[in-house]
Amino acid sequence: MRDESRAGEPIGREKYQRLIAAAQSQTRIKVAVAHPCDDVSLRGAVEAYKLGLIEPILVAPPERLGNVAKEAHLDISGFELVASAHSHDSAAKAVGLVTAGRVEALMKGSLHTDELMGAVVARDGGVRTERRISHCFIMDVPSHPDPLIITDAAVNIAPDLDAKVDIVQNAIDLAHAMGAPEVRVAILSAMETVTAKVPSTIEAAALCKMAERGQITGALLDGPLALDNAISPEAAAIKKIASPVAGRANVLVVPDLEAGNMLAKSLSFLAAADAAGIVLGARVPIILTSRADSLLTRLASCAVAVMAAAARREGTASQSR
Predict the structure, then answer these.
(1) How far apart, in Å, are the Cα atoms of 167 and each of 77, 156, 159, 225?
(2) What are phi and psi of 157, to 5 degrees?
(3) CA–CA separation, 64 and 35 (whole Å)
(4) Of 312, 287, 290, 283, whose CA–CA distance to 301 is shortest?
(5) For residue 110, pLDDT beyond 50
(6) Domain ranges in the chain?
């Protein structure tokens, strides 16, 4: 059973609790919440505000938003409202707040993911950068000692090698933003040996070599590794894999979206894991939640965005010195 939380009092997942506590030590960030027109999405924004994580700007049709707040007994009178006509308009206006420099993050409300991401990547008015946009799940698995970052299970369907370079770098940067003392990246496949019969093993080997040459920075990489050898020291020892990553990975890079989606959902539904979600590579982090997410998971996603925004802010400041 998933852990839920009462208003302002998240309970349960220890790793998420530490993450939220770390984010509370950072400056509260302004977040454009795109179309929070149902109970769960609006409540997530309100509770994240109560915890000192975000300052939400609600982008939605006013009458519809007011009805949701009234039915859910949520006080939104102190929040700025940007009026929109419908969900597509909410997405466009939320992204517009980014381009205007008014917010440090976006948050998905009750609209479809492709509506929000369509506005994010739009040629005119979008907020893409030179970096490939990718998604990370931050998994809190009760039986595993550390949080696991899994990428990419939601945005890039069948990324090529060039795309995977950015996917890996986005995940590494996120792990550092979350305070990981050492980032250990496992490039997953079905086996540990490199063979032309399984293209993902070739790409894994190439990514590791690219890290050696400085094309990917900030982490230890190893691959190809099967999942068991990536996270189980015992499995890695049995296979006689000598590596600082094998058995100790805290970032798992999957071959494609299907593999990542299956892995994340298997952990969620078979191992009682929670999965906070964030999209990176745009001008600001994007809090991407699911309607099935618990309140604690939504708060953890906000906490991740706070940490990512703080790291981005510090990086910009250091570059300007």
Answers:
(1) 39, 9, 9, 17
(2) -70, -55
(3) 10
(4) 287
(5) yes
(6) 12-128+282-321, 132-278
Tell me 282's DSSP state: B
Q: Please name the fold of domain 12-128+282-321.
A: Rossmann fold (3.40.50)
CA dist 63 → 85, 167, 321 (Å): 10, 40, 47
Instruction: Tell me the one-letter amino acid at 13.
Output: R
Instruction: Give the residue-averaged pLDDT of 42-57.
Output: 96
Q: What is the mean pLDDT of the chain?
A: 92
Give residues with Cβ within 8 angstroms of 89, minimum separation 6: none
Q: How confident is the model at residue 320 (pLDDT cuts 50, 70, 90)?
A: low
CATH code linked to domain 132-278: 3.40.718.10
DSSP 8: T
The pTM score is 0.91
CA distance 31 to 99: 13
pLDDT in tens, 212-238: 999 999 999 999 999 999 999 999 999
> How many angstroms separate the CA atoms of 159 and 134, rounded?
10
Q: pLDDT band at residue 1, thresholds of 50, 70 and 90?
A: very low
Flag whether pLDDT at 7 surpasses 80.
no
Q: At what angle do helices 295-320 and 161-177 cross, to 10 degrees?
A: 100
The angle subtended at Cα 288 by Cα 154 and Cα 133, nearest 5°, is 55
Among 133, 88, 70, 76, which Cα is nearest to 288's? 133
The string of DSSP letters for 44-79 reads: HHHHHHHTTSEEEEEEE-HHHHHHHHHHHT---TTS
Helix (H, G, I), strand (E, B) or coil at 131: coil
Domains 12-128+282-321 and 132-278 share a fold: no
Residues 58, 247: Cα–Cα separation, whole Å: 43
